[in-house]
Design goal:
DNA-binding, four-stranded antiparallel β-sheet, five-stranded mixed β-sheet, 271 residues, 11 strands
DNA sequence: CAAAGAACCTGGCGGC
DNA sequence: TGCCGCCAGGTTCTTT
Protein backbone atom coordinates (compact mmCIF):
# COMPACT_ATOMS: atom_id res chain seq x y z
CA UNK A 1 0.00 0.00 0.00
CA UNK A 2 1.81 3.02 1.14
CA UNK A 3 4.83 4.63 -0.42
CA UNK A 4 6.32 8.00 0.39
CA UNK A 5 3.31 10.14 -0.64
CA UNK A 6 0.82 8.00 1.30
CA UNK A 7 3.01 7.79 4.39
CA UNK A 8 3.75 11.52 4.21
CA UNK A 9 0.03 12.27 3.98
CA UNK A 10 -0.71 10.12 7.03
CA UNK A 11 2.25 11.60 8.89
CA UNK A 12 1.01 15.16 8.30
CA UNK A 13 -2.48 14.25 9.48
CA UNK A 14 -1.11 12.51 12.55
CA UNK A 15 1.07 15.49 13.36
CA UNK A 16 -2.01 17.68 13.14
CA UNK A 17 -4.36 15.45 15.12
CA UNK A 18 -2.50 13.38 17.71
CA UNK A 19 0.58 15.45 18.42
CA UNK A 20 0.43 16.81 21.96
CA UNK A 21 -1.88 14.08 23.20
CA UNK A 22 -1.09 11.57 25.93
CA UNK A 23 -1.28 7.80 25.49
CA UNK A 24 -3.91 6.59 27.96
CA UNK A 25 -4.07 2.91 27.01
CA UNK A 26 -3.23 0.44 24.28
CA UNK A 27 -5.19 -2.63 23.27
CA UNK A 28 -3.34 -5.23 21.23
CA UNK A 29 -5.63 -7.67 19.44
CA UNK A 30 -2.91 -9.06 17.15
CA UNK A 31 0.21 -9.44 19.28
CA UNK A 32 2.59 -10.24 16.45
CA UNK A 33 2.18 -6.72 15.06
CA UNK A 34 3.47 -5.03 18.23
CA UNK A 35 7.03 -5.18 19.51
CA UNK A 36 7.49 -3.74 22.95
CA UNK A 37 5.60 -3.43 26.21
CA UNK A 38 2.56 -1.23 26.80
CA UNK A 39 4.26 0.07 29.94
CA UNK A 40 6.93 1.71 27.77
CA UNK A 41 4.42 4.12 26.25
CA UNK A 42 1.42 4.44 28.60
CA UNK A 43 1.31 7.88 30.19
CA UNK A 44 3.74 9.35 27.67
CA UNK A 45 2.89 12.34 25.52
CA UNK A 46 3.39 12.38 21.74
CA UNK A 47 5.62 15.35 21.07
CA UNK A 48 6.31 14.93 17.38
CA UNK A 49 5.39 12.75 14.40
CA UNK A 50 8.08 12.17 11.81
CA UNK A 51 8.56 10.25 8.58
CA UNK A 52 11.69 8.69 7.17
CA UNK A 53 11.35 6.57 4.01
CA UNK A 54 8.09 4.64 4.53
CA UNK A 55 8.35 4.54 8.31
CA UNK A 56 6.41 6.74 10.75
CA UNK A 57 8.08 7.74 14.03
CA UNK A 58 6.11 8.92 17.06
CA UNK A 59 8.50 10.72 19.39
CA UNK A 60 7.36 10.52 23.01
CA UNK A 61 8.25 12.76 25.94
CA UNK A 62 9.74 9.81 27.82
CA UNK A 63 12.60 9.39 25.33
CA UNK A 64 10.91 6.43 23.68
CA UNK A 65 9.93 6.26 20.02
CA UNK A 66 7.15 4.23 18.37
CA UNK A 67 8.19 3.17 14.88
CA UNK A 68 5.44 2.07 12.48
CA UNK A 69 5.70 0.39 9.10
CA UNK A 70 2.44 -0.01 7.21
CA UNK A 71 3.88 -2.41 4.62
CA UNK A 72 1.16 -3.33 2.09
CA UNK A 73 -2.14 -2.90 3.90
CA UNK A 74 -1.52 -1.17 7.23
CA UNK A 75 -3.95 1.63 7.98
CA UNK A 76 -4.49 4.20 10.71
CA UNK A 77 -7.92 5.63 11.46
CA UNK A 78 -8.46 8.48 13.92
CA UNK A 79 -11.67 8.29 15.92
CA UNK A 80 -12.30 11.49 17.87
CA UNK A 81 -14.16 10.94 21.12
CA UNK A 82 -17.28 12.70 19.87
CA UNK A 83 -18.07 12.15 16.19
CA UNK A 84 -20.37 10.22 13.97
CA UNK A 85 -19.92 6.53 13.54
CA UNK A 86 -17.59 5.61 10.69
CA UNK A 87 -17.69 2.04 9.48
CA UNK A 88 -14.40 0.19 9.90
CA UNK A 89 -13.01 -3.31 10.07
CA UNK A 90 -12.24 -4.57 13.55
CA UNK A 91 -8.92 -2.96 14.46
CA UNK A 92 -5.87 -5.05 15.24
CA UNK A 93 -4.63 -2.48 17.71
CA UNK A 94 -6.07 0.57 19.43
CA UNK A 95 -4.13 3.40 21.03
CA UNK A 96 -6.33 5.47 23.32
CA UNK A 97 -5.29 9.11 23.49
CA UNK A 98 -6.53 12.17 25.36
CA UNK A 99 -9.07 13.15 22.72
CA UNK A 100 -9.90 9.91 20.96
CA UNK A 101 -8.67 6.59 19.66
CA UNK A 102 -6.06 5.84 17.04
CA UNK A 103 -7.04 2.54 15.41
CA UNK A 104 -4.58 0.40 13.48
CA UNK A 105 -5.85 -2.19 11.02
CA UNK A 106 -3.78 -4.35 8.71
CA UNK A 107 -5.51 -6.92 6.53
CA UNK A 108 -2.41 -8.82 5.47
CA UNK A 109 -0.66 -8.29 8.79
CA UNK A 110 2.75 -7.56 7.32
CA UNK A 111 3.04 -4.20 9.07
CA UNK A 112 4.34 -3.59 12.57
CA UNK A 113 4.68 -1.13 15.42
CA UNK A 114 7.71 -1.20 17.67
CA UNK A 115 8.90 0.73 20.66
CA UNK A 116 12.56 1.70 20.55
CA UNK A 117 14.80 4.22 22.28
CA UNK A 118 16.04 7.33 20.49
CA UNK A 119 19.44 5.89 19.76
CA UNK A 120 17.90 2.86 18.04
CA UNK A 121 15.53 5.05 16.09
CA UNK A 122 18.50 7.09 14.90
CA UNK A 123 20.36 3.95 13.80
CA UNK A 124 17.30 2.68 11.94
CA UNK A 125 16.97 5.98 10.08
CA UNK A 126 20.56 5.89 8.97
CA UNK A 127 19.97 2.64 7.09
CA UNK A 128 17.87 4.47 4.52
CA UNK A 129 19.14 6.21 1.41
CA UNK A 130 18.53 9.92 0.80
CA UNK A 131 15.05 11.41 0.93
CA UNK A 132 14.06 12.56 -2.57
CA UNK A 133 13.29 16.09 -1.32
CA UNK A 134 16.59 16.50 0.49
CA UNK A 135 19.83 18.02 -0.75
CA UNK A 136 21.62 14.67 -0.35
CA UNK A 137 19.46 13.39 -3.24
CA UNK A 138 21.94 14.92 -5.64
CA UNK A 139 22.94 14.26 -9.19
CA UNK A 140 26.37 13.27 -7.97
CA UNK A 141 24.93 10.78 -5.48
CA UNK A 142 22.69 9.17 -8.09
CA UNK A 143 25.51 8.96 -10.64
CA UNK A 144 27.57 7.14 -8.07
CA UNK A 145 24.82 4.73 -6.98
CA UNK A 146 23.67 3.92 -10.50
CA UNK A 147 27.19 3.37 -11.78
CA UNK A 148 27.64 0.49 -9.35
CA UNK A 149 24.93 -1.79 -10.71
CA UNK A 150 23.84 -3.47 -13.90
CA UNK A 151 20.47 -4.31 -12.40
CA UNK A 152 17.34 -2.79 -13.93
CA UNK A 153 16.96 0.85 -12.92
CA UNK A 154 13.50 0.12 -11.48
CA UNK A 155 14.99 -2.24 -8.91
CA UNK A 156 17.50 0.39 -7.79
CA UNK A 157 14.76 3.02 -7.47
CA UNK A 158 12.84 0.75 -5.11
CA UNK A 159 15.87 -0.15 -2.98
CA UNK A 160 15.30 1.73 0.30
CA UNK A 161 18.98 1.62 1.20
CA UNK A 162 19.73 3.63 -1.94
CA UNK A 163 16.71 5.98 -2.22
CA UNK A 164 13.98 6.44 0.39
CA UNK A 165 10.29 6.12 -0.20
CA UNK A 166 9.82 4.94 -3.78
CA UNK A 167 7.74 1.77 -4.20
CA UNK A 168 6.11 0.04 -7.12
CA UNK A 169 3.60 2.71 -8.15
CA UNK A 170 5.99 5.64 -8.10
CA UNK A 171 8.87 3.72 -9.65
CA UNK A 172 6.61 2.96 -12.63
CA UNK A 173 5.24 6.50 -12.85
CA UNK A 174 8.63 8.20 -12.43
CA UNK A 175 10.23 6.06 -15.13
CA UNK A 176 7.41 6.92 -17.51
CA UNK A 177 7.79 10.61 -16.69
CA UNK A 178 11.53 10.34 -17.44
CA UNK A 179 10.88 8.26 -20.60
CA UNK A 180 13.17 5.51 -19.35
CA UNK A 181 12.66 1.78 -19.80
CA UNK A 182 12.37 0.10 -16.40
CA UNK A 183 14.67 -2.72 -17.52
CA UNK A 184 17.54 -0.42 -18.47
CA UNK A 185 20.64 -1.38 -16.49
CA UNK A 186 21.30 1.35 -13.92
CA UNK A 187 24.89 1.89 -14.98
CA UNK A 188 23.85 2.57 -18.56
CA UNK A 189 22.01 5.79 -17.71
CA UNK A 190 23.88 8.83 -18.95
CA UNK A 191 24.07 12.10 -17.05
CA UNK A 192 21.22 13.67 -18.95
CA UNK A 193 18.97 10.67 -18.24
CA UNK A 194 19.87 10.72 -14.55
CA UNK A 195 19.07 14.41 -14.40
CA UNK A 196 15.68 13.80 -16.01
CA UNK A 197 14.94 10.86 -13.73
CA UNK A 198 15.79 12.84 -10.62
CA UNK A 199 13.48 15.63 -11.76
CA UNK A 200 10.74 13.11 -12.65
CA UNK A 201 10.88 11.45 -9.22
CA UNK A 202 10.53 14.77 -7.41
CA UNK A 203 7.72 15.90 -9.69
CA UNK A 204 5.73 12.67 -9.38
CA UNK A 205 6.13 12.38 -5.60
CA UNK A 206 5.24 16.04 -5.00
CA UNK A 207 2.19 15.75 -7.18
CA UNK A 208 1.08 12.55 -5.42
CA UNK A 209 1.40 14.25 -2.04
CA UNK A 210 -0.68 17.15 -3.33
CA UNK A 211 -3.42 14.61 -4.12
CA UNK A 212 -2.99 12.93 -0.71
CA UNK A 213 -1.58 9.71 -2.12
CA UNK A 214 -2.99 6.93 -4.29
CA UNK A 215 -5.81 4.61 -3.41
CA UNK A 216 -5.34 2.02 -6.18
CA UNK A 217 -7.91 -0.55 -7.25
CA UNK A 218 -7.87 -2.71 -4.14
CA UNK A 219 -8.61 0.38 -2.05
CA UNK A 220 -6.42 -0.41 0.92
CA UNK A 221 -4.88 2.99 1.42
CA UNK A 222 -6.94 5.49 3.35
CA UNK A 223 -6.21 8.81 4.90
CA UNK A 224 -6.48 9.17 8.66
CA UNK A 225 -10.18 10.07 8.36
CA UNK A 226 -10.94 7.07 6.13
CA UNK A 227 -11.03 8.98 2.84
CA UNK A 228 -9.33 7.76 -0.32
CA UNK A 229 -6.30 9.44 -1.83
CA UNK A 230 -6.83 10.89 -5.31
CA UNK A 231 -3.58 10.49 -7.22
CA UNK A 232 -4.74 7.21 -8.82
CA UNK A 233 -6.70 9.43 -11.20
CA UNK A 234 -3.40 10.69 -12.50
CA UNK A 235 -1.65 7.37 -13.12
CA UNK A 236 -0.11 7.32 -16.58
CA UNK A 237 1.06 3.70 -16.64
CA UNK A 238 0.39 1.94 -13.33
CA UNK A 239 -2.47 -0.56 -13.72
CA UNK A 240 -3.12 0.69 -17.27
CA UNK A 241 -2.08 -2.46 -19.16
CA UNK A 242 -3.62 -2.55 -22.65
CA UNK A 243 -4.80 1.08 -22.46
CA UNK A 244 -3.49 3.85 -24.67
CA UNK A 245 -0.46 5.87 -23.69
CA UNK A 246 -1.66 9.43 -23.18
CA UNK A 247 1.46 10.68 -24.93
CA UNK A 248 1.77 8.53 -28.06
CA UNK A 249 -1.27 6.26 -28.18
CA UNK A 250 0.64 2.98 -28.10
CA UNK A 251 -0.69 0.36 -25.68
CA UNK A 252 0.74 0.21 -22.17
CA UNK A 253 2.58 -3.02 -21.54
CA UNK A 254 2.92 -5.05 -18.36
CA UNK A 255 5.93 -7.19 -17.51
CA UNK A 256 7.44 -8.55 -14.31
CA UNK A 257 10.62 -7.26 -12.78
CA UNK A 258 11.74 -8.96 -9.59
CA UNK A 259 8.24 -10.43 -9.45
CA UNK A 260 6.58 -7.01 -9.30
CA UNK A 261 4.09 -5.81 -11.88
CA UNK A 262 5.85 -3.31 -14.11
CA UNK A 263 3.96 -0.99 -16.45
CA UNK A 264 5.45 1.10 -19.24
CA UNK A 265 4.89 2.46 -22.71
CA UNK A 266 6.98 0.43 -25.17
CA UNK A 267 7.18 3.42 -27.53
CA UNK A 268 7.94 6.28 -25.11
CA UNK A 269 10.21 4.15 -22.96
CA UNK A 270 12.40 2.29 -25.42
CA UNK A 271 15.40 0.40 -24.12
C1' DC B 1 28.70 -11.24 -2.11
C1' DA B 2 25.13 -10.17 -5.53
C1' DA B 3 20.92 -11.69 -7.11
C1' DA B 4 16.94 -14.60 -7.37
C1' DG B 5 13.22 -16.77 -4.88
C1' DA B 6 10.48 -17.87 -0.98
C1' DA B 7 8.12 -16.42 3.04
C1' DC B 8 5.09 -13.66 5.72
C1' DC B 9 -0.82 -13.07 5.28
C1' DT B 10 -5.72 -12.22 3.57
C1' DG B 11 -9.11 -11.53 0.12
C1' DG B 12 -10.66 -10.45 -4.61
C1' DC B 13 -10.81 -11.80 -9.29
C1' DG B 14 -10.80 -14.52 -13.61
C1' DG B 15 -10.80 -19.01 -15.68
C1' DC B 16 -12.32 -23.60 -16.07
C1' DT C 1 -21.56 -22.62 -7.83
C1' DG C 2 -16.83 -24.14 -6.55
C1' DC C 3 -12.22 -24.71 -6.64
C1' DC C 4 -7.63 -23.08 -8.17
C1' DG C 5 -4.14 -20.18 -9.23
C1' DC C 6 -2.76 -15.54 -9.61
C1' DC C 7 -2.49 -10.96 -7.99
C1' DA C 8 -1.81 -6.94 -4.64
C1' DG C 9 1.29 0.56 -2.68
C1' DG C 10 6.79 -4.19 1.12
C1' DT C 11 10.37 -6.02 3.42
C1' DT C 12 13.31 -9.84 5.07
C1' DC C 13 15.18 -14.34 5.22
C1' DT C 14 17.08 -18.26 2.62
C1' DT C 15 19.05 -20.31 -1.28
C1' DT C 16 21.82 -20.25 -5.47
Amino acid sequence: MPELPEVETIKRELERTVSGQTIKAIKIYKPKLFFGKPSQIIGAKIVKVFRRAKVIFFYLDNQQVIMVHLKMTGRFLWRPEKTDWVKQEKPHLVISLTKGKLNYYDLRQFGWLKVVDQKTSQIEQEKFGPEPFSSSFSLKYLQNVFSRSRRPIKIILMDQSKISGIGNIYANESLFEAKLNPLKPAKELNNQEIKLLKKAIIKVLKSAIRYQGSTASDKHYRQLNGNFGQYQRHFKVYQREGEKCYHCGHLIKKIKIANRGTFFCPFCQKL
